[in-house]
Structure formats: C-alpha cells, structure tokens
Amino acid sequence: MMETNKRMAYVVLAMALGLFMSSLDNTIVSASISQVIKDIGGFEKMSWIFTAYMLASTSTMLVFGKMSDLFGRKLFYLIGISLFLIGSALCGTAQTIDQLIAYRVIQGVGSGAIFPISFTIIFAMSSDPKKAAKMSGVFAGIFGISSVLGPQIGTWISESAVLGWRWCFYVNVPFGILSIVTLLFALKESKSDQKPKVDYLGTLLLVASTVLLLLGLEWGGKDYAWDSVQIISMFSASAIAIVLFILVERKAKEPILPLGIFKNKMVLGTSIIVFCQGAIMFSAITYLPILSVAVMGNENSNSVLTPMMFPIMIGAIMGGFLCTKVPFRTIMIISMAAGIGEAYMLGTITHETAKLTVTLVMIGMGLIVLGPLMSVSQNAVAQNVEMKYIGIASSVVGFWRSIGGVMGASITATIVNNYLKDKMTSFAASSQMPAEQVQKLAKPEVLMQQNTALPPQLVEYMRGALETALHHGFVLALIAGIIGLFVSLFIGGDRYIIGARAEKEVKPKGVPAN
C-alpha cells in the first residue's frame, strides 16, 4: 500500500508539472509577442502565432482522449508531452515568423493530449474516488492560475536582459523532461491483448469540422466580414463535416467520439455549461487588460488580473472537495448564478470605479465562477461514463470549454469593435476627420499604445466610447451565464458517490485495463 501511494504521489507530480507547463504556455507567449516581432519581424502574421496553437490543441484534444482509451493513458501522455517539448525547443530557435507558426502547431498538438489525459490518469489510478475528486480540483486550479499568471511571467522573461523571449519557450523543457522521467518510472499500465480498431474517417471529419469552425470564428469580423464568402464557406463546410461525422460515428465499431455518452443528461448538460463558462472566461480575460489600461488608466493589467489568480485555484480545490458533499447541480447553479452577477458588474465598471470594487469583482470571478467548475465538470462527467470512455469524457470537457472560449472572445470582439467604429465614425463626421484615420483609431488597442501622441480631446472621447463598447461586449458573458444557469437546473441531482462508476462498468474485450 505504501509503495502504491508513493507511486501515486510521483504520478501526481508528473501530471502537475506537465499541466502547469502546457497551460502556462497558452498565455505566456502573449506577453512576449512585441519582443518576438522586434526580433524576427512578421507583424502581419502575428495573430497566427496564437491561432495555429489554438487550432492544433483544440482539434486534437478529443482524438488524444479517445486514443488514450484505446491504447493506454501513459503512451499517449508521453507522446503528447514529447511533441510539446519538441515544439517548444523549436520555437525557441525560430528565425522567421513562418518557422515560429509551424513550430507552434507541433506545440499545440502536444498540448491537446496533456490536459485531458492528466485528469484521465488520476481518475483511472486512484482507488479512492473522493481523493481523485479533490486531486482534480488541484489540477484544475493549476490550469486556471497559470492562465492568468502566464502574461506576467512572460513579460518578465521577455524583457529580461539575460533571458529574452526565446526563454518563454525554453523554460518548458526542464519541466517537461522531469515530468516524462517521473511518469516513465512511476506509472505502471497493463496492455490489451487485442488491437483496437481506429476510426480514421471519424477522426479526419472531427479535426476538419473543428478547424473550419474555429477558423471561421477567429477570422469573422476581423480579417473578413461575417457575411463574406470566406466566412460563410468555412461555416458551411464545417456544418457539412459535422453532419458527415455524426453519420460515420453512428455506424463506427469504435467511434472516435461515442455519441451515446451525450444521452446522459449530466454529460450533455455539463458540456453546455462549460461551453458557457468558456465564453465568460475568455471574453473576460481578453478584454479585462484593455479595460484596466485603456479605460481605468492603470499602467498594466496586473491590478485587475492578479486578484483573480489565487481565487481560481482555491475555487477549483474547493469545488473538488464540495462535489463529494453536495450534488454537482448545486455547485453549477451557484457558479452560473454568480457568473450572471459578475458579468453584470463587469458591465458597470467605469474609469471612476473604485479599485477595491474591481478587486472584489475579480476575486468573485475566480473563486465562484471559474474555479469550482474547473474541477466539478471533470468529476461530473467522469462519474457518468464507463471507465472505457473516461479519456474521451475528460477531453469533452476541455474541448467544449475551448470552443466556448473562442466563440465568446470572437463575438465579444465583434460587438466591441463595431460599436467603437460607429462612435468614431460619428466623431469623424462632426470633426471632419479623414475616413482612413477613423479606421486606424477605431481599435481598442490604440488607447493602450498610442494615446500620448493623440490630442487630449480625442483621447477622452475614445476612452468614453471604448468604455461603453466594453459594457456592450460583456452582455455576451451575461447571456452565457443565463444559459448556463438554465441548463444547470435540469441536469439531475447526481453527486460524487463512491463506486458509482464501477456500477456502470462493463469491460469489453480489447480495452486496456486501467
């Protein structure tokens, strides 16, 4: 027993290192981007540094989850983290923007495995479901806090005279190697006697539909108008691929995404709720820095984002503990109800709002809205599927949160940018400003970088316009909270019960033992 507990501790350490490394990378790069562009150029392709990573990680998440169910968690976790390390090391050596984008794809593919399989290994290894539930809270907290901590670490590294932006990637290597070595020796996993059948066509359609959807959301309203041929074509092609995917999965012997798991109302409801959580989370994280610097006049976004950091971790741990005491639904209802209140409060923050008020709003966001659902959602889904689907089930949670995040940030951006453009057009008409000047100024980032070169009267007008635009944008988070709350009322009263998953278990031949 002592030997088993010791191995479990090492596995947890390996998972924590890998998870911290991959989730930190989501945001650490954003802080170093200006230094990257100064060094290797490529300003016009800058957005692809983030888009390539996001597309690769989200589109492969479900694939890795299913492969870990079929061929073993350890193998595909090691494959994922190895790809992530190779991509990280290559990113640090990039000499052109095109090289960096290509290497970010490798990094993203690896990241698509780390997050879902980390949770899967813990659920599969732990003989004590309550301990697994609480540990999932710690893991979710690591993911949440690193998402907010990343920009600050990235700023420090990239502006360091000794390190520089390349170390934003190199820093992953020692953590990743330690995680790999620890897991190699600590995790023992049995093998299947039969070779499972891989759903290649379903995999291809899943990746294609996800990439097309995410590209449409990423480019819509920015690079192309929402009603442009390009965006409509992407959404149409994605819809066709989704329909074909469903048809293929219904007939596949071993589907890449078993659609039957969504017949369980807890799995379906949780998927919708984390989608809403992603929309709230990413729309907030994307625009809080702009709110802090451009509207409130702070030097940076630390005063807004920092109060949300540790509450996310505390909330996630608390959620993992509470879901062993009260129904999942209770926690989800509280989180979504708080999300509505938080979204409303975000829509009332102005340049005159007291810093204490903003700090309390951010603490509430992390402690009640974001943190608890990070862990509770994983536990809720894990308990309601058979063990043979635990990998894909863990991936489903991360997948829908990512999709919701991209959609939330994209729609919020459209609302904010369109309102700001309309206000600047009105200002130009009254002040006889050239149309091309309006196009340059109708961007939220202008007030964060160029306000010293603008006339004070114009700066004041733009700040007021941006403040109102952000208030309009945060309405989307409010709507997401309302939808999430409504869904949470109807997902059933399940709670984390020891042995519940075992009762669902019917092990087929050919599935690796866990």
Commentary on this structure:
- The chain is mostly helical and 514 residues long.
- The chain folds into four domains: 1-188, Growth Hormone, Chain: A, CATH 1.20.1250.20; 197-253; 262-409 and 474-498, MFS general substrate transporter like domains (Growth Hormone, Chain: A, Up-down Bundle), CATH 1.20.1250; 420-471, no CATH class.
- Helices cover 77% and strands 0% of the residues.
- Helix 10 (265-295) packs antiparallel against helix 17.
- Residues 505-514 have low confidence and may be disordered.
Order of helices and strands: HHHHHHHHHHHHHHHHHHH
How many strands appear in the DSSP assignment? 0
Rg result? 23 Å
| H/I helix tally | 19
Anisotropy-based shape: globular
Helix/strand class: mainly alpha
Query: Which CATH-level-2 architecture of the largest domain?
Result: Up-down Bundle
CATH topology of the largest domain: Growth Hormone, Chain: A
- Intertermini distance: 17 Å
Query: Roughly what fraction of the amino acids lie in strands?
Result: under 5%
| Most strands sheet | none
CATH superfamily of the largest domain: MFS general substrate transporter like domains
The top level CATH class name of the largest domain = Mainly Alpha
Number of domains: 4
What portion of residues is helical?
A: over 70%
> Which ranges are low-confidence, i.e. pLDDT below 50, for 5 or more consecutive residues?
505-514
Residue-averaged pLDDT: 80
